[in-house]
Amino acid sequence: MTKPKDVDSYIANAPSRAHPILKELREIITSTIPEAEEGISYNVPFYKFHGVHVGFSAFKNHATFGIGADVLHSKNHKMLEEKGYKTGKETIQIKYGQKVPATIIKQLLKAKMNKAKRTTN
After folding, report:
1. For residue 88, what are the domain limits?
2. Which Gene3D superfamilies does the entry mention (predicted)?
3. Strand order in the sheet with 86-87
4. Predicted confidence (pLDDT) per residue in 14-46, tens digit
């Protein structure tokens, strides 16, 4: 993948089967945290707000949503894994063809935003 100049070019250059998931993740982030600053960092989409960030990336067979270990706790890992998602310490993998766990991601984003606001106030 060539170095993207913005999120639109990142999505356009990702594998075509990644496009629906990446677009949905972008919509979830921007609608849940409208004040987030969208940009590219480390060659992937990042959304910064109140000193913290979230992001996503495309791979050969899945997309990864990065939220951070501060809000992605063991109960979330267990719930997501029971629904067929693979999780890492700070990430959720979404296989192409798998439904985006929008409700869970929105809850995690709200928790991250609230935590960030508390630490910056």
Report:
1. 7-113
2. 3.90.1150.200
3. 37-41, 44-49, 52-58, 62-66, 91-95, 86-87
4. 999 999 999 999 999 999 999 999 999 989 999
Decide: residue 65, CB within 10 A, 0-12 exposed, 13-18 middle, 19+ buried. buried
Question: Would residue 40 count as lying in a domain?
Answer: yes
pTM reported for the whole predicted model: 0.92
Enter the DSSP assignment of 100. Answer: P
Residue 102 CB neighbours (<10 A): 13
State the DSSP code for 63.
Answer: E
DSSP codes, 10-28? HHHHS-GGGHHHHHHHHHH
